[in-house]
Amino acid sequence: MSTPSAWETAWASAQPAISTIQTSLGQSSSPDPRIIRVGQLDSELLDQELSSLLQEPINRALPLISNTLKSRFEPELAFLIQLVLYKFSVWDTGASYGAKLQDLRYVAAKQQGSTLGSRIPRRTLLAHGALTLLLPYLRERLRSHALSNAWPDAPSSDRRRKAWDLLDNLETTHTLLGLLNFTMFLWNGRYRTLADRLLRMRLVPCRRQVKRDVSYEFMNRQMVWHAFTEFLLFLLPLIDAKTVRKRVYRLGGWLSPQSLLTLLPEKPLARLGITLSQQSSASLKKQGKYANLAENECAICLENASFNLNPSDPSNAFTTIAATPVHSDNPDAQDDVPSHPIHIPYITSCGHLYCYYCLAERMVQVADGEDEERAWECLRCGEEVKQADRYSVEVPEVDDLDVSGSEYEFSSDLDMYTDMSGSMGSYSESALSE
């Protein structure tokens, strides 16, 4: 019979030690998961932000119904929103919405009694909801009631003053205890609030292997938008909005069907039954944007008003779109007050009237080199404006007036006149003798 080798002897002698190690490993509890304090604090901030986001549209809608609804029922609305969020988060799943985003959940030290889907006893959840939701609501209501009834101004012997001092002392004590609890939380990371410490509820990771997935996607997006915003703030002052607007209008005029037809040969148009005379083609090319505008209105004022989005200004884009004046042969239409009257009328080289200020502004822009064009084009006919003169009306002198009769009449055949404000309109006057 052969003697055992040295390896077999060593294996046999190590068996008791191996058995002891296996037994100790089976009886030892699992190590505590890694505690992340930042995740717990972030979950609380996310819950507060979610509650405020849900409450904000309701607070904006209440003043539309009544001005006093927001001040009267704002605490109740906040309590109702927080109660609904608590029911569908902590009560049902054992974690708030902010805790779920941080991959955390609540666990209780004692699992006695009936448990819910959150695996936390019902009594513990009821007490936690009362401490975190009901107690702050009652405190806010009691404080607002005390301030509205002047409890702090009551005499020191009054019960209201004593109740106010008691409430103030309780708030101070709660603040100090909260500070101590937060200090201990930073030390061991176990209980985030006083309610969690009283009920022995703490937030733990949902997974055994805690891994912080730090994503820089949001930060990168914010940096891109921030750089793009700074670039726009630098670029927009360098762009002349009026020049761009003028180019867009001109491009729209070139791309209109009537303008495109003038570029086609006459033979294909004749075969299709489309005839364009030279006079009509020239008129199409020279027709301006406001060719059909009434003669007693300023086209530049109308163009400026079409880009004014201020609702408080009576001449804005909305009123301009709602009522765009056009030329009409009806004499009754000429008696209406124009929406954009001509003040201090000046006549251009093409024979159209504009306000002095509007016309001078456009021509000064061309002279200063803000526009690349050689001359400013009329908004009515599209021709280049070379010069402009003050528009004046000559009143013919009446030499012979018959004043011997019992009745006399003054009349004028002028269709246009200039009042003190410079507006253009029709003029007629008649008078009866004594």
From TrEMBL:
Domain of life the protein comes from: Eukaryota
One Gene Ontology cellular component: peroxisomal membrane
Pathways involved: Protein modification; protein ubiquitination
Keyword Membrane on entry: yes
EC code(s) of this entry: 2.3.2.36
Keywords of this entry: Membrane, Metal-binding, Peroxisome, Protein transport, Transferase, Transmembrane, Transmembrane helix, Transport, Ubl conjugation pathway, Zinc, Zinc-finger
Main location per the UniProt record: membrane
Domain RING-type, first and last residues per copy: 298-381
Gene3D superfamilies: Zinc/RING finger domain, C3HC4 (zinc finger)
Catalytic activity: [E2 ubiquitin-conjugating enzyme]-S-ubiquitinyl-L-cysteine + [acceptor protein]-L-cysteine = [E2 ubiquitin-conjugating enzyme]-L-cysteine + [acceptor protein]-S-ubiquitinyl-L-cysteine
Entry's Gene Ontology molecular function annotations: ubiquitin protein ligase activity; zinc ion binding
Compartments, record wording: Peroxisome membrane
Membrane disposition: Multi-pass membrane protein
Alphabetized SUPFAM superfamilies for the sequence: RING/U-box
Cited Pfam families: Pex2_Pex12
Enzyme class: transferase
Record bears the keyword Transport: yes
GO biological process terms held by the UniProt record: protein import into peroxisome matrix, receptor recycling; protein ubiquitination
UniProt xrefs under PANTHER family: PEROXISOME BIOGENESIS FACTOR 2 (PTHR48178:SF1)
Family statement: Belongs to the pex2/pex10/pex12 family.
Protein name: RING-type E3 ubiquitin transferase (cysteine targeting)
Protein species of origin: Ephemerocybe angulata
